[in-house]
């Protein structure tokens, strides 16, 4: 995710196009992640390195552990080599080092880089910069490539089921924000479930409509963009990118929490802008016997509300079990790291920016009110959009209700099953 600027909610179509379209780890218990998975199931300064050099870079981090600190405070840590650090300045090489390949035959590279019980000094922060370089789109308006999308999958898989160091967590959260549409689709999408996924990423052509006219990987997708299929798992290689588990881990860190929360709220604004005045899908085909114009858009809005509710439930649960010891300080940090408020423009948009630009869309102002009142933050945006677009009152009320139901259910189920 790239740094974004600030904008006005009433910006023109041209402004919107310019801004929104171009614009120390030990095995985790997994209890919180299990609850999130159950909820998802129920709710729905050099250039490209040569291959030999890239292999050497990956291998360079897999060195014997050393001790950080002294005496009783000494703990094992993995040093991050200068060669690995240099990847942050060479995005193409960083992507090559992380890319697991279409069949995950090179997944060991990402695992050797990231799957360690703690990094020495600023090693975790340095690896965060490598992740950013290797998975981020090349610039505003640029779609993700297949190699970048596969690399995002590899990072998520390498860190699944592990505690994520505090210095690394924000970068991992930014990676998920960079692939917001794909990360929201952690349990499969409509007719495109995990059994249908054949690799860690799919090209744009496979993300489009299927033979029945169903969207496969999401609505309003950017043409030409590859997508990470985090729902893919290789049971023979024992490789899985467990997004609910990763989110549950990242939510312990206030900066990472803010990044994920920002991404969900930016996605909500982006999504509403592209709906019809009835809150439906403009691509709906009359005569579809499987759906109405609002069937799948309602489903998407429920998913978004669920993910926002899940974040709030995790924060509350971690406060309850002592993972977050100072809730007031945690909340202040989330506010400080949040970029601001994201409001939809007042008119219908037909643009299809790439995923990286969604999370980087300009803010509409500072985040106001109770940051942790996710329901209020959602409905302030939804109600404003409905008023400006002239959405019929009964339809606006129905959208509000279905989002509220999903949000509340997420709060309740996480607490029942985890906390």
Fold and architecture overview:
The two termini are 32 Å apart. The chain is mainly α and 419 residues long. A hairpin with a 6-residue loop joins strand 1 and strand 2. Helix 3 crosses helix 5. The N terminus is likely disordered. It contains 18 helices and 6 strands.
Give the SSE map.
Elements: H1 13-22, H2 31-43, H3 51-60, E1 66-68, E2 75-77, H4 82-86, H5 91-98, H6 107-114, H7 123-135, H8 146-159, H9 169-178, H10 180-184, E3 201-202, H11 204-207, E4 227-228, E5 233-234, E6 239-240, H12 243-250, H13 254-273, H14 295-321, H15 327-337, H16 355-359, H17 374-389, H18 393-417
Antiparallel strand pairs: 1-2, 3-4, 5-6
State the main characteristics.
single chain; 18 helices; mainly alpha; two-stranded antiparallel sheet; 419 residues
In short:
It is built from 18 helices and six strands.
Strand order of the largest sheet: 1-2
Kindly report the average pLDDT value. 83
Shape: globular
Distance between the termini: 32 Å
The helix count comes to: 18
> How many runs of DSSP E, i.e. beta strands?
6
Residues in β-strands, percent: under 5%
State the helicity in percent bands: 40-55%
Q: What is the radius of gyration computed over CA atoms, rounded to a whole number of angstroms? A: 21 Å
The largest sheet is:
2 strands, antiparallel
Q: What class, by secondary structure content?
A: mainly alpha
Poorly predicted regions are 3-29, 42-62, 188-194
Order of helices and strands: HHHEEHHHHHHHEHEEEHHHHHHH
């Amino acid at each position: 995710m790239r740094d974004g600027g600030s904008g006005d909610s009433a910006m023109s179509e041209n402004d919107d196009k310019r801004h929104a379209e171009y614009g120390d780890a030990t095995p985790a218990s997994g209890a919180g992640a299990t609850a999130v998975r159950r909820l998802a199931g129920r709710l729905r300064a050099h250039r490209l390195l040569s291959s030999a050099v890239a292999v050497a870079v990956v291998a360079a981090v897999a060195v014997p552990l050393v001790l950080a600190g002294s005496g009783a405070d000494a703990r094992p840590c993995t040093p991050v080599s200068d060669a690995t650090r240099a990847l942050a300045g060479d995005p193409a090489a960083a992507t090559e080092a992380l890319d697991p390949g279409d069949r995950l035959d090179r997944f060991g590279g990402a695992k050797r880089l990231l799957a360690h019980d703690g990094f020495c000094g600023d090693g975790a922060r340095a690896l965060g910069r490598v992740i950013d370089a290797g998975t981020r789109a090349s610039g505003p308006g640029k779609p993700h490539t297949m190699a970048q999308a596969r690399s995002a999958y590899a990072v998520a898989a390498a860190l699944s089921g592990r505690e994520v160091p505090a210095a690394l967590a924000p970068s991992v959260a930014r990676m998920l924000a960079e692939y917001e549409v794909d990360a929201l689709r952690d349990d499969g999408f409509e007719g495109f479930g995990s059994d249908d996924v054949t690799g860690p990423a799919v090209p744009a052509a496979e993300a489009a409509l299927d033979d029945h006219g169903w969207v496969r990987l999401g609505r309003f997708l950017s043409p030409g963009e590859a997508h990470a299929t985090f729902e893919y798992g290789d049971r023979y290689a024992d490789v899985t990118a467990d997004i609910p588990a990763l989110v549950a881990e990242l939510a312990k860190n206030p900066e990472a929490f803010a990044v994920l929360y920002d991404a969900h709220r930016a996605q909500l604004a982006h999504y509403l802008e592209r709906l019809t005045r009835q809150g439906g899908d403009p691509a709906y085909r009359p005569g579809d016997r499987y759906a109405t114009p609002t069937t799948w858009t309602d489903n998407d809005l429920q998913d978004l509300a669920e993910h926002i509710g899940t974040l709030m439930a995790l924060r509350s649960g971690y406060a309850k079990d002592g993972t977050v010891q100072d809730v007031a300080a945690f909340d202040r940090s989330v506010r400080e790291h949040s970029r601001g408020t994201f409001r939809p423009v007042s008119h219908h948009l037909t643009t299809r920016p790439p995923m990286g630009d969604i999370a980087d869309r300009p803010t509409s102002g500072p985040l106001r009110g109770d940051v942790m009142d996710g329901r209020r933050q959602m409905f302030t945006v939804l109600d404003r959009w409905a008023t400006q677009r002239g959405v019929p009152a009964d339809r606006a009320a129905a959208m509000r209700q279905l989002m509220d139901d999903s949000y509340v259910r997420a709060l309740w189920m996480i607490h029942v099953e985890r906390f």
